[in-house]
Amino acid sequence: MSLTPADAAFVETLAAGLPADTLRPAEPRYLEEPRGRWTGAETWVALPRSTEEVARIVHACAKARVGLVPFGGGTGLVGGQIAPAPARPLLLSLERMTAIREMHPMENAAIVEAGAILADVQQAAAEVDRLFPLSLASEGSARIGGLLATNAGGVNTLRYGNARALVLGLEVVLPDGQVWHGLKRLRKDNTGYDLRHLMIGAEGTLGVITAASLALHPRPATTGTALLQVAGPDAALALLAEARAQLGDTVSAFELMHRTGFDFLAEVLPELRQPWDAPPEWSVLIELGLGHGADPQAALETLFATAHAAGLVSDGLIAQSQAQAQDFWSLREHLPIANRGIGAVSSHDISVPLGAVSEFITRADAALAEMGRWRINCFGHLGDGNLHYNVFPIPGESRADHADTRDAIKRCVHDIVHALGGSVSAEHGVGRLKVEDLERYGDPAKLAAMRAIKAALDPRGIMNPGAVLATG
Amino acid sequence: MSLTPADAAFVETLAAGLPADTLRPAEPRYLEEPRGRWTGAETWVALPRSTEEVARIVHACAKARVGLVPFGGGTGLVGGQIAPAPARPLLLSLERMTAIREMHPMENAAIVEAGAILADVQQAAAEVDRLFPLSLASEGSARIGGLLATNAGGVNTLRYGNARALVLGLEVVLPDGQVWHGLKRLRKDNTGYDLRHLMIGAEGTLGVITAASLALHPRPATTGTALLQVAGPDAALALLAEARAQLGDTVSAFELMHRTGFDFLAEVLPELRQPWDAPPEWSVLIELGLGHGADPQAALETLFATAHAAGLVSDGLIAQSQAQAQDFWSLREHLPIANRGIGAVSSHDISVPLGAVSEFITRADAALAEMGRWRINCFGHLGDGNLHYNVFPIPGESRADHADTRDAIKRCVHDIVHALGGSVSAEHGVGRLKVEDLERYGDPAKLAAMRAIKAALDPRGIMNPGAVLATG
């Protein structure tokens, strides 16, 4: 049962039932992705303005058995937004559906359309004195629909959870074109299977998210930021435990950074202000969000003193101003750009149980050392056990020199992650990049259940074909 | 495709492959439920000791097309644990699988079997200085498997979320007898569809949960409890907003109580110490969990002073000791028993958006007044918009006098909930009680998707037949 390409004849018929400018040939920006690993096939892009138009498009694709790739901000790192060549599916961009439909500050809820950009949703929440805590490097261009479809993580997961923890309800066009109107604003609703969590993280393979009811949070009255030198990942985890003992749930971010990251930043972005004369091997960026009357600098100084006495931290900088805090965060947020400037041989978005973080790094470093000489930039959301363990060539070599080794490196790192009970896709998703990994490492009963669900909800296989699940 | 009864021949064959005492005729306690609305058909109960034995039982049932009703603590309020007469399914009790398999205090995680009693899990967490925050009236007998299958709520949802928010991973026997080994201890894992959240809340209709990886939390260093008189539900919600502004996420419970509840407690349980000379029309039980060095009584006094100045509270009691705090909680926790002593004509576990709570109560009270004279005990988890709106006969009449009116009352209340964008099952689930309500009020696209998923994962329809989804 192969798919029909979205050819001129199909597009002409579809266009007849939609406003004049809804369909057009896809410009290059729809066919590219941040890491440059895939290029989409030439195709058409549909740009609907309403859920009803999305439903009409999906229904037409289902009828004609034409594949459909939902497209948000295009920031995904696993190729889920790229339309593969053989099937030539239609692209469906939600970029015209950007409305903040409703704001309910008293209920800590907002209803937004899938095309809304994350930074705009954060801003709309701030305007009613609320926090929408999802935050990640691409927040200026990533859109809500894609963020939910991939269950995005980011820097505030430690306190507020993944994207899925911030969703009260969804509006979704199902693969047959029916609309599930699930935009409830309820904290408790046990009326049947939780379709919401099934759609979140399904990466557009089970339907198109058109709008979401999001959970907002109170805005912390005051925040504190520090950059602390730690002896290593174990010391960092002990520091986190101490921070939580002293400060409870107010620790909102806890990011591990390796010296290699500071080196890359100096090399690729020399204009960025560097905090250290000589960067330490390991450091931690910590952020607190506290209530009225609290003194975050004093809290961080107390934490530092305790941790210093316990031998966990050796030096540190506590931001003395909002500007300095932003400088610290700027370093963390520019790491992906610095990495791209150097050019990774292989990047890994992994998680392991917290108790296995240190062992993972030791084992992976040792195994890779046997395969060659590398620069390894290991950084990430330590409090979630989520590391970006990225492998780069040494100076004088390029990623192209190691194209033959890439798969072996990936396999080596992922084998260690799997052996430690971890995940080979912590926050970026499966997309097209990790379909094979899912087959290799996934639980067979879970994979069988996933295939049964996919076949049940999308029997014609039109939704984001080739993403997440291997097509038969 | 009707089911085969679990008759002596089937049980004999099944027993041959299991330890001698695994199967026995079900004693009356397996055929009863707390509200006395259903009685199960005479049947057999299987009491496996391991996941492997559960898998063998499920596989045998699938092969013979015998229905299977998973049984936890038997505390469910919607009949989901009751085996209906016509199909005579086998009962599957998890009561022998009570192990706390692993404790990971550093990771704030625990792996427990489905038969573990909630209070025992709470206790095991406390022994390693952690909190497992799920808490509800039946915690001394409810078991983890049932609590997750129904996505239980309770009094700490406001701060810690529903049961599903406390689950990192699951081990589940799927309807064909395959075991999904999903007991990960990860905070981030985006490897495919989230089966975990699909199984949680499916009430045993998609598989049998045999173990869970649970999220623990730091234990609050100190707690504070107060019982405050409020002018009404709107004032209570304004008080909650003020409490959160002053105290952030440390508000762990916020329970609304109506005077009728105190009256019922005095009538049914006269030995309980009553806090008021004359109970106020509306009061709120509030609990804080604070960090080291905090003074919860001072925090509650400040809250009271601010709220009193704003006209939100008129009087109040701040617990001066742990014993007094327990007295306050004892009142709240005995409400279900008091209600049973009076005998409800109709009970409703509903939720509405916070902004609609007051309107719901006004409209429901007015509509019911047109149908007769009642005593209404409206109480519950106000911070979650979750009310137990229970309708009782006036003194001198009994529930039996109104048997004919019950359905009309339920319909009237649920119609109002639905019109306000609420849920007719907030925390108790659908079970057998609300199958018709789900058909009436459920979104058609969602229902179609649920049916497709059920047919895909349980094509023989053996798992908890008749619960959640109407059987055709």
TrEMBL record, chains A, B:
Entry's Gene Ontology BP terms: respiratory electron transport chain
Transmembrane segments: none
Residues annotated as domain FAD-binding PCMH-type: 37-219
GO terms of molecular function: catalytic activity; FAD binding
Keyword Endoplasmic reticulum: no
Superkingdom: Bacteria
Family: Belongs to the FAD-binding oxidoreductase/transferase type 4 family.
Protein name, UniProt field: Hydroxyacid dehydrogenase
Organism: Pseudoponticoccus marisrubri
